[in-house]
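Field notebook, page 206. I keep forgetting to write these up properly, so this time I am using the form the group agreed on. The chain and the ligand, 2-oxoglutaric acid, are recorded exactly as supplied. Prediction of the bound pose follows.
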Amino acid sequence: MNSNRSSRLQPNLDGLVDALARQGWGVTDSLVDGEQSARLRRRLRYRLKSGSFRDAAVGRAATRARVRAVRGDRLCWLNDTAARGTERLWLDQLEQLRLALNQSLFLGLRHWEGHYAVYPPGAHYERHVDRFRDDDARVVSTVLYLNPSWRAEWGGQLRLYPEGQAVQDVEPAVGRFVCFMSANLPHEVLTTHHERLSIVGWFRRD
Ligand SMILES: O=C(O)CCC(=O)C(=O)O
Ligand SMILES: [Fe+2]
């Protein structure tokens, strides 16, 4: 069990770290296997059923209609101290990545915060950057996708707009992990035609 656990914590982080340094974003399918994705998906479903999800927010004064026009996801925050089992494993993997990023890129990342996200059919998240004007603590954004057998016709791609590079569309395929610099990489979630499941988060420097 222990060796299995530690081997799962040693994926090819170098490629991801290099990509982030070189182009400001990186994608890998080898961080999380099918079994772990399925376990995380079950946790998400359990939390959804138990009523732990809330509508996402945008600005403090935004009306519900305005929020829907900007982003249609519902979310449930992951609580570090309460995390057990598969959620604990996921947080441990993110911790390995945090250390690797700090070691290679000197980003000074202190911790990760994040939430499960569900986009119901018809939902999207319009183009934005993840760093708030009044809060610059978010440094690296992370997304892990949890839907099995995603189909291209369902839409729901993450569209990245890296400066000086071609626009990149990332399919939300199961177990796929994306990370990018929070401060300066505009991105959007294209309208999804199928319920879209993920864990979104940010490495912070505060
Ligand atoms: O789910 C995604 O692909 C990205 C979500 C996102 O941009 C966000 O929650 O800030
Ligand atoms: Fe975002």
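OBSERVATIONS:
- The chain has one domain: 2-204.
- The chain is about 30% helix and 25% strand.
FOLLOW-UP: compare against the apo run.
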